[in-house]
DNA sequence: CGCAAAAGTTAGGATATCCTAATTTTATTT
DNA sequence: AAATAAAATTAGGATATCCTAACTTTTGCG
């Protein structure tokens, strides 16, 4: 006989439960689409992961057999408790890595996402925890997304998007969508970053441009972009009237 | 048609040439066994990667087809120029990551290897370069192994092992084998680490213990352990006679 | 409410990687 | 140099993941 016994499957992941990279990606996608609770359509998973719908049908079936998902044919999937935990662990990894790359290695914010997308499947919990400690246990990643705790708790607050904000309102940017590097570069140029304060000056009708004041400058953006920017309305503004 | 075209193979690696994790592992193993030039037996590859010999036969055939290896059935394999470059890139990644984990995140030296083993397939060249810069472009990893340059150059010096050193000789430890955590912890306890100066006090015959002075202490180790410690003899010792 | 469009699934394949068992080639040893 | 031992290969399978094409179920509309 040669050497010791071998794991039945060669895993490329560092997950405690030994999930593969693709499995982690599915769970994360399902969590993010359904906010952790809502039932999710297989086609939406396919779209988000850029896979053929048929591939998703096969995979969710297997994940359901493993107890990670609840699944009824033609009816969408939900995360089980164990699936949810696994999803949040991966999301924590992703966001801690993003934050670490940004703060400790001065990684540009439009590139942290792709790098984290690969590292999240390879980094051990110990490494992720060391990274988090090294940068002072931040609460959010560079795009403003909340980082789940080691115990799997996350801030699930739902924010308005800039597209939902009426003229005259002021708000603070809390979070921007993270996966389009070009958009992130553009937003940074406009100073629309988490923490920035903005005022909606006017909104043209029929999906027209939204004019804002940001950091003293006036600028206009389209509603498609505005919908990617999550904000927290500020109470103390002067002209909230309609 | 849905979305854009898809890569023909889904890669889990960040390599420029798009090599998979297993492929990088094979190339690295072949480089390390054969020091980059010598022909390597497939069985040795199997042993090092903990795979069945039959699996290696299949894989080296494919790698040869891809131009990464020279291969003649029943005769072993050699790295081609392109295989060698790929191997050194992976080795650079591995060692930079080890050094970074150790210096920037205070990772214990017996655990950097396993972590790097996974991250080396996921980290982009940009990340590895940023890590290297962040810790001052070290020349060696925490175990004393030389880090290949971005251009693929490495120090190929071959050192003696402690097991080859006669009684009376002094030497400086340059490098220790890196993949057995328990052994690394033991060596650290004995202060046998890269940079340490040692003197061989005596050697018992018939594979007997080797007695050393390290950091002022006397201690004995077996030849199996001694052979894992690479040293550079010191010229200025007093009793080199016989 | 019936039917077409949309959503989702099964069927049948492909690829990369690994395994065990059986076979072939090379090396060693008398 | 024949016989045996060691090394390496082929044959035949398994698994995880993905795909396209064809089919089925659900949904939404006139």
Describe the structure in your own words.
Two copies of one chain form a homodimer. Chain A is an alpha+beta fold and 242 residues long. Chain A has eight helices and eight strands, in the order αααββαααββαβββαβ. Chain A has helices spanning 21-34, 42-49, 53-65, 81-104, 112-119, 125-134, 181-189, 223-226, and strands at residues 69-71, 77-79, 160-161, 170-176, 197-203, 210-214, 217-221, 229-233. In chain A, strands 3-8-4-5-6-7 form a six-stranded antiparallel β-sheet. A two-stranded antiparallel ribbon of chain A has the order 1-2. In chain A, a hairpin with a 2-residue loop joins β6 and β7. In chain A, α1 packs across α4 and α4 (81-104) packs across α5. Chain A is globular, with a radius of gyration of 20 Å. Chain A starts with 20 loop residues before the first helix and ends in a 9-residue tail after the last strand. At the A-B interface, α5 and α6 of A face α4, α5 and α6 of B. The first copy, chain A, binds a DNA duplex (30 and 30 nucleotides) through residues 6, 8-10, 20, 22-23, 41-43, 51-59, 61-62, 73-76.
């Amino acid at each position: 006989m040669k050497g010791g016994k071998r794991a039945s499957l060669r895993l490329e992941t560092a997950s405690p439960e030994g999930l593969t990279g693709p499995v982690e990606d599915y769970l994360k996608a399902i969590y993010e689409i359904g906010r952790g609770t809502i039932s999710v359509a297989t086609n939406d998973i396919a779209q988000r992961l850029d896979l053929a719908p048929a591939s998703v049908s096969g995979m969710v079936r297997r994940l359901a057999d493993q107890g990670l998902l609840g699944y009824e044919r033609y009816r969408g999937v939900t995360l089980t408790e164990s699936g949810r935990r696994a999803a949040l662990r991966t999301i924590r990894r992703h966001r801690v890595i993003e934050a670490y790359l940004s703060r400790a290695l001065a990684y540009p914010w439009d590139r942290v996402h792709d790098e984290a997308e690969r590292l999240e499947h390879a980094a051990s919990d110990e490494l992720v925890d060391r990274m988090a400690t090294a940068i002072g246990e931040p609460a959010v990643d560079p795009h403003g997304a909340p980082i789940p705790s080691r115990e799997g708790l996350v801030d699930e607050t739902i924010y308005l998007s800039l597209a939902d904000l009426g003229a005259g309102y002021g708000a603070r940017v809390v979070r921007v969508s993270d996966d389009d590097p070009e958009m992130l570069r553009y937003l940074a140029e406009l100073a629309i970053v988490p923490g920035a304060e903005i005022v909606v000056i006017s909104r043209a009708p029929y999906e027209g441009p939204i004019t804002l004041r940001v950091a003293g400058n006036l600028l206009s953006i389209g509603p498609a972009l505005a919908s990617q920017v999550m904000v927290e309305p500020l109470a103390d503004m002067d002209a909230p009237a309609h």
